[in-house]
Amino acid sequence: DPPQSRIIRNEHGAVIGLGGFFGGLMSLLQESMNCT
Known about the structure:
This protein is mainly alpha-helical. It has one domain (4-35). It is 50% helix and 11% strand. The chain contains one helix and two strands. Strands 1-2 form a two-stranded antiparallel ribbon. The protein is rod-shaped and about 25 Å long. The model has no long low-confidence stretch (mean pLDDT 66).
């Protein structure tokens, strides 16, 4: 899994960068699995 240090949040709390991109995908996947 990607290092947490790559996940950078701006002042609005939005995730930017490669780590944040994959982190967002994983979050969406987890939410989808939880909904089923």
